[in-house]
Amino acid sequence: NYILGIETSCDETAVAIVKNGKKIISNVVSSQIESHKRFGGVVPEIASRHHVEQMTFVLEEAFDQAKLTWDDIDAIAVTEGPGLVGALLVGVNTAKALAFAKQKPLVGVHHIAGHIYANRLDEEFQFPLLALIVSGGHTELVLMKEHGIYEVIGETRDDAAGEAYDKVARMLNLPYPGGPQIDRLAAIGQETISFPRAWLEVDSFDFSFSGLKSSVINKIHNAKQRGGELKEEDIAASFQASVVEVLTEKTWKAANKYNVKQVIVAGGVAANSGLRKALDKKFEDSNIPLLIPPLKLCTDNAAMIAAAGSIAFEAGKRSEWDLNANPSLTLR
Ligand code: ATP
Ligand code: MG
Ligand code: FE
């Protein structure tokens, strides 16, 4: 099947066409980062307006690149949540209008299911699999025993990993989005400060990053007050070391406990070079294959939505005309 995917949950307007949930035919992403940069984060109203302005161009480009027409499309998959409600609404209403006009089935997709299925554009899934989801809004360990069924075995109790990256970056006066900036600095810094690792209860696969964030912020404050020397690259390296160690160890422990056949990593923070390196090293000598999507498929895109939509479509899932944006949709 050929699935047209639409993604507008945050600050990228994206349309893609994917064949059989595995092969990218076209993948167009219009990022709004420049528009949000001067505000230090995503401004919801601006995001919605951008989506409206960009949608028709991005859609046309997706068809142009694919050299396909509407006749070739079997269904339309769209992110229904979670995300910014005004942003989601643009995608959902575009998808509904197109489905109605072109007489195509409509499939609502969970944004995080999309991040997970970005991995399947690379390699076929082996079940049971464990997914580590690390993005701007989520930090979760998800166990999957079959396609489309998600069991959350651990999640953050406060900040998401990407959120912590962005907040620490802001404290260091680095531009938005902060994750890649910290990543860049961490590569040239040293772990000179020993920040806390939030392991929580012994058997817990939950995460917590707010304590770490606070201690980084305190450290920066104190150094500023004393006029002392604190290299930003060392703060970045020390912060990243803490985040990466907890993510890697908990993923390793869960993978072994549940005897999984594959571990996949998803979401924007999967682009982090320190995390990629640490996970690669941890799983290298094990018999558990580790899958991390190429950088371009880690952050928001519509190919991943089409990939997840393809599986749902094959399973017979259809959305009705009352499909609505749901900013707090849960993964099930
Ligand atoms: P969600 O998917 O939870 O709704 P989102 O869509 O905003 O949130 P993504 O687009 O998946 O999140 O990822 C964006 C996040 O990834 C930002 O917090 C950004 O700082 C972070 N990020 C991107 N690249 C890197 C990197 N190299 N290192 C660390 N973090 C990164
Ligand atoms: Mg984004
Ligand atoms: Fe995302």
TrEMBL record:
Tagged with keyword Metal-binding: yes
Chain sites annotated for binding Fe cation: H111, H115, D300
Subcellular location per the Swiss-Prot or TrEMBL entry: Cytoplasm
Residue numbers binding substrate: I133, V134, S135, G136, G137, D166, G179, D183, N272
Catalytic activity entry: L-threonylcarbamoyladenylate + adenosine(37) in tRNA = N(6)-L-threonylcarbamoyladenosine(37) in tRNA + AMP + H(+)
Residues of the Gcp-like domain: 23-306
Enzyme class: transferase
Molecular functions per Gene Ontology: tRNA N(6)-L-threonylcarbamoyladenine synthase activity
CDD domains per UniProt: ASKHA_NBD_TsaD_bac
UniProt-listed InterPro entries: ATPase_NBD, Gcp-like_dom, KAE1/TsaD, TsaD
Pfam families per record: TsaD
Keyword tags: Acyltransferase, Cytoplasm, Iron, Metal-binding, Transferase, tRNA processing
Co-factor(s): Fe(2+)
EC number: 2.3.1.234
Manner of cofactor binding, per the entry note: Binds 1 Fe(2+) ion per subunit.
Family assignment from sequence similarity: Belongs to the KAE1 / TsaD family.
Function: Required for the formation of a threonylcarbamoyl group on adenosine at position 37 (t(6)A37) in tRNAs that read codons beginning with adenine. Is involved in the transfer of the threonylcarbamoyl moiety of threonylcarbamoyl-AMP (TC-AMP) to the N6 group of A37, together with TsaE and TsaB. TsaD likely plays a direct catalytic role in this reaction.
Stored HAMAP family: TsaD
Name of the protein: tRNA N6-adenosine threonylcarbamoyltransferase
Lineage: Bacteria, Bacillati, Bacillota, Bacilli, Bacillales
Gene: tsaD
